[in-house]
Protein 1
Amino acid sequence: MKSFISLDWGTTSFRAYEVGADGAIKNQTTAADGITAVKDGAFEQTFENHIGAWDKSLPIVASGMITSRQGWVECAYAECPADAAELAQKITHLNTATGRIVHFITGLHYKSPSIQHDVLRGEETQVFGALATGATHFVTPGTHSKWIETKDKRIESFATYMTGESFALYSKHSILGRLMQGEAHDEAAFTRGVKQSFADPAGILHSLFSTRSLGLFNALPATALYSYLSGLLIGQEIAHATRAHDHDAPYMVLGSAGIAASYISAMKLAGLNVKLGNPLCGIEGQRIIAHQAGII
Amino acid sequence: MKSFISLDWGTTSFRAYEVGADGAIKNQTTAADGITAVKDGAFEQTFENHIGAWDKSLPIVASGMITSRQGWVECAYAECPADAAELAQKITHLNTATGRIVHFITGLHYKSPSIQHDVLRGEETQVFGALATGATHFVTPGTHSKWIETKDKRIESFATYMTGESFALYSKHSILGRLMQGEAHDEAAFTRGVKQSFADPAGILHSLFSTRSLGLFNALPATALYSYLSGLLIGQEIAHATRAHDHDAPYMVLGSAGIAASYISAMKLAGLNVKLGNPLCGIEGQRIIAHQAGII
């Protein structure tokens, strides 16, 4: 394989990595210029502002929300089931005014039996970068977390959960935030929330209120309420996402350290066989897909 | 019974009614001065600003969030089960500087088997004002809706659902609001949301995302998404609130016209025996409790 520039340009952040022929990261830059912060479609200019000094001959491989309608180039979804080869075939190529070539890996659409249409962008590439670990079931925690199931190196199905966004809404904008003191992780309170949701997964609109009532009656200290709420929501997600699935399957969590640790803790409480994946597996996924496309 | 002034002073609104000896409303005033808008505990002054011209010899009967820690006088909760006589015994009396007497009816605490502590303030008085209808199971839709079960004229148990607040959060502050056009009620979309939640009540964090994905794929028009989201949340609440209850029990919805109609529509889809109650039953409840206390 050859060197390339890996671009992970999401809704709220910009991340670029210069990746050597051996897969090692030689250079990287991160900025808060998520795609929603880019005005008037000035993606190329924003991009050059951050990595203008990097080698212009290197191919750029991009995935994630940058391929959405709000992104640089909107790429039509590929359909589940899909393997890395299919994503390689569907790459969209763009020549920039500065003489670079950007290769966009599109996301996936799934004809979901539960909600008819489900979509993701970026997580497919992470999964293809993590398949070599032997895991088959993946969770990508985040604003909208995704539960992705693979079989024979193909992504068969997935489901979106609005857990991260819900947590932000309830902790910052609802009455539940008023009694909270601080955001320090409290494992006991987190576990209590997880178990509450495991015991009654359909009761979340009711259980959420306990974040207030337990605080009002000093059954939980104010400093524990943030973690308790997190446990309620993550526990509810896990209970539902694993309801009809093989509990012995090799699960892997792909996410940054703090939130991934919470998911792993809760998934172990559910008796799942789960490991922490490499948070940079998206780069490896881009490398595999771009290689199959003959780009690197 | 004698005449009195009924005070319904909640978090976001102030309502007062002059009620005749026969129970008829002779005078009323409504303002946006909810208790959170009252600065430095100036409840009496705010109160006189609105009803200063009303007869000072009339007893005032108050219930709702005005008896909470954030209200005029904090009243300790009564414990479930409780009847009107017990609330009458627990009334807190206050003499104002202007020579009025305010009688505060406190709220209820319930040692909930599901969330340990549950509370309400104001809805207990509505229920006691509606018991003569023969209904035994009551729903009070709102920011936090309450499902209240009675037996032999006592409130036995209740459960809070954060449905209204969740709807406001998701429709106004989440990604789900971005595709929405307008807030007009669309009964078909509402029903679709209700049925989605009835079919998979534990899947709400997942189903919520369909408000976006169905819009993205034009499976629902943008004008229908607001009602669809409402159906998802209300359906989820109803599915859980009635999970272990008698579906043939006489249910009654106590709420203002629009939201009550949505609840009744969804509860009928669930096969429940439900009727619309009088939205002013809180006044009748105050009248009954104050009469038992010998105040009127």
Note: Chain A has ten helices and 14 strands.
Protein 2
Amino acid sequence: MILLDGKKTSGDLKKEIAASVADRISQGKKAPHLAAILVGTDGASMTYVNAKVKACQRVGFDSTLINMPADSSEEKLLQEIDQLNRRKDIDGFIVQLPLPAHIDEQKILMAVDPEKDVDGFHPVNVGKMALNLPCFLPATPFGIMELLERYQVPTSGKQVVVIGRSHIVGRPMSILMSQQRPAGNATVTVAHSRTQNLKALTLQADIIVAALGIPGFLTGDMVKEGVTVVDVGITRLEDPSKKSGYRLSGDVHFESVSKKSSHITPVPGGVGPMTIAMLMKNTLLACKRKDG
Amino acid sequence: MILLDGKKTSGDLKKEIAASVADRISQGKKAPHLAAILVGTDGASMTYVNAKVKACQRVGFDSTLINMPADSSEEKLLQEIDQLNRRKDIDGFIVQLPLPAHIDEQKILMAVDPEKDVDGFHPVNVGKMALNLPCFLPATPFGIMELLERYQVPTSGKQVVVIGRSHIVGRPMSILMSQQRPAGNATVTVAHSRTQNLKALTLQADIIVAALGIPGFLTGDMVKEGVTVVDVGITRLEDPSKKSGYRLSGDVHFESVSKKSSHITPVPGGVGPMTIAMLMKNTLLACKRKDG
């Protein structure tokens, strides 16, 4: 069993990105600059945004964090986005989700200049992804593709089951893995809440991407010998034995599934660390594009 | 066995559209106006474009056909598109594909105002489709969804195999049928040229969408009893016994497959006639949107 080590791989990636940045600076070019907008003070969102800003600093990026009050109006947020769209020094930016209920999330995502949309959430980037055109891939699927590619997991002609059809993971994964590209060319099935007899599907799968958000959902009896398993789930479960009071659980029952797996991602330390690294990679890409 | 009669259904649709147009006129509103650009004089393309223009006239639309010389420059075509984007009297327009080799097709499709892109080929419309947001669906997939819905073919929880991953049929069909929508909620597998053991997949399928462009590819031994089959293929085969010198063949071997099918589309008279009807429907939609 080979562990698909996202922590190590994201570390490698960050080193490569840092080297690219150092290279740019030595050539007199500007450092990539990522901005993030956070509305409100939700604990998890602050943790994520701060992790992104810290990661930026470590690879030599410039970073800007804009923290708006939780009761900011949609109009005020749109103005902020308009300013970031115009600022020439900023290469890419993200709006941390979820947004407060009084703000129309889709309207906000549509307002981001697609050329600066390093989260890959704007419909034009989603469309370009579906058409296999150059674009910003959403960070989590991009990270999974990178992980599969770097570990040289065979995908061409393989049977893949993606469990979950969310816009940010399940749908893009199912599209990417069936396209003609590295870690692609697979025969992909999308399973979801309406799927009947899921176990019959997963038992046939060479690769399973679990992205449904139910802790420990995929168990050893549901997979075949030699399967590759990518666990996208990350749920906080109460655990009084931990100092933090909780532990993180993936969608995969690691103990039983890993015994039958050829490759498997751990949680934590699998898909999670890749996500921030790919956001950095998209920002570097945005910056390089502007060089002309 | 029930024939999914695209000729009849598209006739019904056109009557409904014509009634909507008559209704608009009686309310003093403008008729929908579809424009088409054809570059060159390719026989098949001219046939298709003329059929679209004629269909417009029959439902009471205004129509404009712009026929440009085959050696028109990309710049000239972009200027033409820019004019159609600006013209307030035109609700939607299409650029007939394929384009001559010296013109960058993707660049042309990107230049069409997404609000007038009634073919649904602009990345922003493709992205909105993938995100299940209101958009112009590409006509052929839209027509298949309409046909399945009108014939009340059960799809929720069913196993669907889409053979083919093209941008205009296979990919959108696989996305639409797995989404939460009428004729959706299916468990969809996308098969393609790299797929191994396709027959094992099709034998399990409740619904098969054949869109690979190989005449007579899907045969009776590849499907199970009670399957629903949608045949998107349409290939001209030489046939000296016909006055035209050719006959049309789908991707499905109708004789053997229909014997085991609960529902099946014929070729011709299945998916084909639906395509033009859905283009009309998109144009009507574009026109209504502008009413505000």
Note: Chain B touches chain A through 33 residues (CB under 8 Å).
